[in-house]
Write a structure and sequence with these properties.
The structure is a single chain. The mean pLDDT is about 95. A hairpin with a 2-residue loop joins strand 12 and strand 13. The longest helix has 19 residues. A 7-stranded mixed β-sheet has the order 3-2-1-4-5-10-11, with helices on both faces. The protein has a 4-stranded parallel β-sheet with strand order 7-8-6-9, sandwiched between helices. The protein has a two-stranded antiparallel sheet with strand order 12-13. The radius of gyration is 22 Å and the shape is elongated. About 35% of the residues lie in helices and about 20% in strands. With about 400 residues, it is an alpha/beta fold. Helix 1 runs antiparallel to helix 3 and helix 1 crosses helix 11. It has 14 helices and 13 strands.
Length: about 400
């Protein structure tokens, strides 16, 4: 018999708890697995030996389904960068001590690019000390920027929310006779997948968003103002979707960075709003969607949630087959009918790499996305869940705060 541990890390999504459910449910089926531990605040929980018994908290099918539909990371998260073990082995020794004390034979890390860096480092270190603990990465990120995998859990729900929000903003912006510009700032530090996904509105006959700017395309204020003026000559209300990570002058963003060296980005929408007001002089507003993109589970994609659970389950099967240092990935077989399979990739192939939006998706002017990209995005936003309601609002599963301390 062995125990397992699972942790969540990085930015929350609507689907990360569904992957936790996948790990939990699949582990319940396996007679060789005894305790199922949840690590509080990602890898920090393993370092500090701060684990909780998930079997004592998920007591019924209703609990499990509620958790599956709950956004964010129920176990808490972290942005902890593991050092190279050759430079600081003490942290690794603490991790090993926890795993041995708890008789943990497999560790599942649900997270994004930085979390996959942790998976890679742990699997490499365990190999050097001949420690038989399987390390499996289960992907998640609304940014959809993990390489090799077709897409990441969390992206579909975020895309569904963003597209729906722009659809509603389009309706709102057209009610007045005066011309207007609405700039919607969307998450995406290095990759414009989420911003680009708003192109699905074109499949519904919408002309908006009229302009789409992503980090993969060159950006200049001169061209931006020209683009806005051109669109204003054709549309009373111009809707602009812009990634937070497009290139802007120094000082627009805070410049503060996290432990992985990533800048905290926000402010491009307000910056462009001020530019349009000063240079064009029309009615203009900016909308920063911010964390709503990753926590609006009331509009989650059923496809996304189902896939997130499936890839968590597959991670357990991967570990039980004897594999380690692997990251679970999706490989798309076809768009119509939408079909995919779950496979594995080596952690070192994914860690610290970024999957950018394909250049061919971006038009030659660098200000929109071609409609032929729509079949990539469209299947990922399909299907709706029936939220579990209480007092007129969705219920969420939560672990008691005293347990998290």
């Amino acid at each position: 018999m062995m125990n397992i541990a699972v942790a969540q890390s990085g930015g929350p999504t609507c689907a990360i708890n569904a992957s936790l459910v996948g790990v939990f449910r699949e582990s319940l089926k396996e007679p060789s697995i005894d305790a199922i531990f949840g690590s509080i605040n990602g890898i920090e929980g393993i370092i500090d030996n701060h684990l909780v018994d998930l079997k004592s908290m998920l007591l019924s099918d209703d609990d499990i389904e509620l958790l599956r539909q709950t956004p964010s990371t129920v176990l808490g998260s972290c942005r902890y960068k593991l050092p190279d073990w050759r430079e600081n082995e003490e942290i690794y020794k603490k991790i090993v001590a926890t795993l041995r004390q708890r008789n943990i034979g497999a560790f599942f890390y649900i997270g994004g690019n930085d979390s996959m860096d942790t998976v890679n480092k742990l699997s490499e270190y365990f190999a050097t000390i001949d420690l038989d603990v399987k390390i499996i990465g289960i992907p998640k990120t609304i940014d959809n920027d993990l390489c090799i995998t077709d897409h990441t859990p969390g992206f579909g729900s975020a895309g569904k929310y963003v597209a729906t929000t722009l659809h509603e903003i389009t309706r709102d912006s057209t009610v007045y006779s005066m011309p207007s510009v609405t700039i919607v700032e969307i998450m995406g530090r290095n990759a414009g997948w989420l911003t680009a996904s708003t192109v699905v509105l074109h499949a519904m006959g919408e002309s908006s968003p009229h302009l789409i700017y992503v980090p993969e395309a060159d950006f200049s204020l001169e061209n931006f103002l020209r683009d806005v003026r051109q669109e204003m000559s054709k549309h009373k209300a111009v809707i602009v979707a812009v990634s937070e990570g497009i290139e802007v002058p120094e000082g627009v963003q805070s410049g503060v960075v996290d432990n992985f060296g990533h800048k905290y980005l926000s402010g491009i929408g307000k910056y462009l709003e001020d530019i349009v007001r000063r240079e064009i002089g029309c009615k203009v507003r900016s909308v920063e969607l911010n964390v709503m993109q990753r926590c609006s589970s009331h509009l989650a994609s059923k496809t996304d949630i189902d896939e997130a659970e499936s890839i968590g389950s597959a991670g357990v099967r991967c570990a039980l087959s004897g594999q380690t240092g692997k990251i679970m990935i999706f490989r798309r077989v076809s768009d119509m009918p939408y079909t995919l399979v779950i496979e594995t990739a080596d952690a070192y192939e994914i860690a610290n790499n970024v999957k950018h939006l394909p250049k061919e998706y971006i038009n030659s002017a660098g200000n929109n996305i071609h409609d032929f990209a729509i079949p990539y995005f469209m299947p990922l936003i399909q299907g709706e869940l029936q939220p579990i309601m209480s007092h007129g609002i969705p219920r969420h599963f939560a672990i008691h705060e005293s347990v998290l301390k």
